[in-house]
Amino acid sequence: MEKNFLKGLIAAPFTPMATDGNINIQIIEDYADLLIHSGVQGAFVCGTTGEGASLSLDEKKAVIKEWIRCSKDHIKIIAHVGGTCQSECAELAEYASQNGADAIAAMAPFFFKPQQAEELLQFLTPIAGAAPEVPFYYYHIPSLTGVFIPVHNILKQALDSIPNFTGVKYTHSDMMDLQQSIAMSDGRFELLFGTDEMLISGLGLGLQSAVGSTYNYMAPVYTTLIEAFSNGDFKKAREQQQFSVQVVEIILKYGGGVRGGKAIMELTGLDCGPCRSPLQKFSIEEKKALKKDLSDIGFFDRVQVDVAQS
Fold it and tell me: Active-site residue 139, yes or no?
């Protein structure tokens, strides 16, 4: 298997839902066109932002298949297949591969949790092995899985059991472990940075690709950040990152990146519907308050959205 490392921004799409809570597959084609024209390089489907843990196996298959169809070979599709049932994860990995996914990924199981790198790799091996022809990424997000095994310890052993192990989606603030992981990998693995509001830190460590939820609706801000950083204009890069921090602060005020982010998608013109329980639906009053908070920091001008049409 040839490992073609990813570059640039990769959006983590929301899974569109109808008002009754069922998935709304029909929206995905417009969604894919939006991402293609925004300049992102890929879509990380059915992950945290996509409420993958709240979807059934059949729902995840339907969402992944539709994203692959709608990508039109313009963006790469990384299918997140992780969960708590190993056999279902492996089935989904095989399905994603057979339907044309460019890569697969899996987070650690988050109920019965592995304590050591060996235990985690034992869980991941048959999942990656079900799709041996596509790159496999471990999705490290300990704030949600509760699995804090240092990534550099995982990388030391990864290729012994998973030949298609390509890298890690690193969504954590432990910059020491990240730096150790980069040094240990020595170019053999790709680290995808997964904390939008800290992207400049990942760039400073030499990372070249990032996966995030806010890239769905404000990719131009991060594209400008990356360009400024590459050109040595660190003042401009810091300004772009600070704006990102302001947006994330607002998102957290309204329930976090999934709940708040889905509401922002509606305000910017693509209604992805409500979140699935236990995440709560937005009230009309909350949407008005969110719109005002975003307007106060110049969000709609910055992302070139006419708020009057939202």
Answer: yes
Whether the CA torsion 41, 46, 47, 49 is positive or negative: it is positive
Q: What is the pTM of this model?
A: 0.96
Could you tell me which of 10, 8, 5 has the C-alpha nearest to residue 187?
5
**Residue range 272-306, pLDDT digits in tens:** 999 999 999 999 999 999 999 999 999 999 887 55
Instruction: Give kind and range of the element (H or E) at residue 94.
Output: helix 86-98
- Higher-pLDDT residue of 2, 166: 166
Of 95, 139, 170, 217, the catalytic one is 139
- Please say whether the beta carbons of 78 and 104 come within 8 A: yes
Per annotation, catalytic residue among 60, 61, 65, 169: 169
Query: Could you say which architecture CATH assigns to the domain 8-233?
Result: Alpha-Beta Barrel (3.20)
Lowest model confidence (mean pLDDT) among 9-13, 14-18, 110-114, 299-303: 299-303
- 235-238 contact pairs (CB < 8 A, 24+): 237/200, 237/203, 238/200
Residue 137 annotated among the catalytic residues of the structure: no
